[in-house]
Design goal:
Elements (H helix, E strand, L loop, with lengths): L10 H24 L10 H25 L13 H15 L2 H18 L10 H18 L8 H13 L5 H18 L5 H6 L4 H18 L7 H11 L1 H14 L22 E8 L2 H14 E9 L2 E8 L2 H11 L1 E9 L18 E9 L2 H9 L3 E4 L8 H11 L1 E7 L6 H13 L3 E4 L5 H9 L7 H13 L2 E7 L4 E3 L2 E3 L4 E5 L2 E6 L2 H13 L5 E7 L6 H12 L4 E8 L5 E5 L1
Parallel strand pairs: 5-6, 5-7, 7-8, 14-15
Antiparallel strand pairs: 1-3, 1-4, 2-3, 9-12, 9-16, 10-11, 12-13, 14-16
């Protein structure tokens, strides 16, 4: 169906732009991955940009869904979101979902735009002039977020787009077209600014991704899909000439070192064995002053340092040799989480230059979504590949697909561990199947069901038998959680008020109370009334002291044949998770 162009930058325009940008990056993802030789030739820039925008689009859709469903006391008002609602959701979604160097910079670009679009004043920034201001602030804030900016990268393309937008007069469509044309010209110039791009015969991959995002902006306001410039088309041709790219990657490995180009900071670095060994990314809750000190420490540890965000939440990206020191620096600054550490050159086809054969796939793996750092450790020890889901921030399908790929197996068992993630997991499974991976989705609705499934997992038996056994174990596990109500609402147990303690059994509210330990004990008694042999308790960081001891004592006193195991789940949302098998 044809896209109806937007006239002004409102909430619907934000929603449309995010959707079109995701589609555009989906089409260009493989091409962008193939030309990715800088800052690190790991062939994932297109994928990282796609995952970043997917997170932004998901956040915007959640805001619209909340307004469309909202009615009554204590909930989101019915109607439609404001521009500020949508723009902030876009920026926040991109921030928490940012991947890789270019994805992190794109998140800051979107945040910079949102800051202008949501600024209060007599004149709202919703017309062509406002769009120009937004693009200017986006480019400037992205450059400031990079420790040592390098020309010939996405930063150059963003600045050129902002320059062109500022020189344009007219509506949003006119300004968007100018920004797109300026970005294309700058993209064509990137090989002349970075030797590694010139040797490979390609343009900058991050800049190519930004051009796709700006093309979606043009389509949002004009309904037209702009034609690719000659430079962008040349990038596609270069992607097809994969041998030239690989040759350039090999040349960089040979050239980079003490006598080579040396350290290239900021948006990138030299792509050689002399460069840092690890990419470290994490979200960080910290104050501005602590982040300023963190920047200095990380800059001394490595390169490609990008720190984006604000208002207490940051996304930190750096390339280092000592990954542990980078994480420790985050711990000193605040609370890091969603920590991702990637070893450059380990098992990545793009960094080998044909020197070693690809790593052989394992036969079978388990991929599981887990709600807290403690459970992530438990699942990892059991051999699973994990995807961390922070409360209120569920993973997108692209993140699950990436985890399936990371598992590097012919057969994968997928455990969503959340009823609300079933459709997302199904979409991820379908995508993975198109890539030749055999995927079985077990509809686990809680992490404790996933634990039960993982306990009977036997990778040496036939795939179908293993899946049946794991499904049976999960299905035989009743699950419950104890949490705190965020607002007044109707439940199956009556009306609850904000701050009430809720006990949910199999997803339905069964207990409303004021004491966490008492509510947990009531829930456990009701579950064990139907029988059971094993109780699994997973405690969140906010669970009160002594709750585990009280529940264990209750089981010993009243249910003699029942065993109890206790795990620390970390920051998992629920105060207590309970499983009964």
């Amino acid at each position: 169906m044809a896209q109806v162009p937007q006239t002004f930058f409102d909430a619907l325009a934000v929603r449309t732009w995010c959707g079109l940008a995701l589609t555009a990056l989906g089409r260009a993802r493989e091409e962008i991955d193939a030309i990715n030789v800088y800052p690190v030739a790991d062939g994932d820039t297109g994928t990282n940009l796609y995952l970043t925008v997917e997170s932004a689009a998901t956040a915007v859709e959640a805001v619209f869904a909340g307004y469309e469903a909202g009615s009554g006391a204590g909930s989101v008002p019915a109607g439609k979101p404001s521009l500020a609602d949508a723009a902030r959701a876009m920026a926040h979604g991109a921030l928490i979902g940012a991947r890789g160097n270019s994805g992190t910079i794109l998140a800051q670009l979107l945040r910079g735009m949102a800051q202008v679009l949501t600024a209060e004043g007599e004149t709202p920034h919703t017309d062509g002039n406002g769009l120009g201001l937004a693009l200017r602030h986006a480019a400037d804030s992205a450059r400031q977020a990079v420790a040592h900016p390098v020309e010939g990268t996405v930063l150059s393309v963003a600045s050129a787009a902002a320059d062109a937008a500022e020189g344009a007069e007219g509506d949003c469509g006119t300004v968007a077209r100018a920004a797109y044309r300026g970005a294309c010209v700058a993209l064509a110039a990137t090989p002349g600014q970075l030797a590694v791009l010139e040797r490979a015969g390609v343009v900058d991959a991050g800049g190519r991704g930004l051009v796709a995002v700006l093309a979606a902006l043009v389509e949002t306001f004009t309904g037209e899909v702009p034609e690719l410039s000659a430079a962008v088309s040349a990038a596609a041709a270069a992607a097809a000439a994969h041998g030239r790219v690989e040759a350039a990657r090999a040349a960089d490995r040979a050239d980079d070192g003490p006598d080579g180009e040396g350290r290239q900071d900021g948006e990138g670095r030299g792509d050689g064995e002399g460069g840092p060994a690890f990419e470290v990314i994490y979200l960080l809750e910290a104050e501005d002053r602590a982040v300023a000190r963190l920047r200095q420490r990380l800059d001394a540890l490595g390169d490609s340092l990008v720190v984006v965000g604000g208002d207490g939440l940051w996304n930190v990206h750096v390339h280092v040799d000592d990954a542990g020191a980078a994480v420790e620096a985050g711990v000193e600054a605040g609370r890091p989480y969603r920590i991702r550490i990637t070893h450059f050159g380990a098992d990545d086809a793009h960094t080998r230059g044909g020197e070693r054969p690809p790593r052989e796939r394992v036969q079978r793996a388990v991929v599981a979504v887990v709600p807290g750092e403690g459970l992530a450790g438990l699942y990892t020890e059991a051999g699973a590949t994990t995807v961390l889901a922070r409360p209120g921030e569920p993973p997108a399908s692209g993140e699950l697909v990436e985890a399936v790929r990371r598992a590097h197996a012919r057969e994968v068992v997928l455990l969503p561990n959340d009823a609300d993630l079933r459709h997302t997991a199904a979409a991820a499974a379908e995508q993975a199947r198109t890539e030749g991976i055999r995927v079985a989705l077990i509809p686990t609705r809680s992490a404790v069901q996933g634990i039960a499934a993982l306990a009977v997992h036997e990778p040496d038996r036939r795939f179908d038998e293993d899946v049946v056994s794991m499904t049976s174990a999960a299905g035989a596990t009743r699950y419950a959680e104890v949490t705190v109500a965020e607002r007044q609402s109707w439940t199956m147990a009556g009306i609850c008020q904000a701050g009430d303690v809720l006990g949910l059994i199999d997803g339905d509210v069964a207990v409303i109370g004021s004491d966490v330990t008492a509510a947990a004990e009531t829930v456990l008694n009701r579950m064990l009334a139907a029988g059971g042999e094993l109780v699994t308790l997973v405690l969140g960081d906010e669970a009160p002291e002594g709750v585990a001891e009280r529940l264990e004592a209750r089981v010993r006193e009243a249910y003699l044949a029942v065993d109890t195991v206790v795990y620390r789940g970390g920051r998992q949302g629920a105060l207590v998770l309970i499983g009964v098998e």
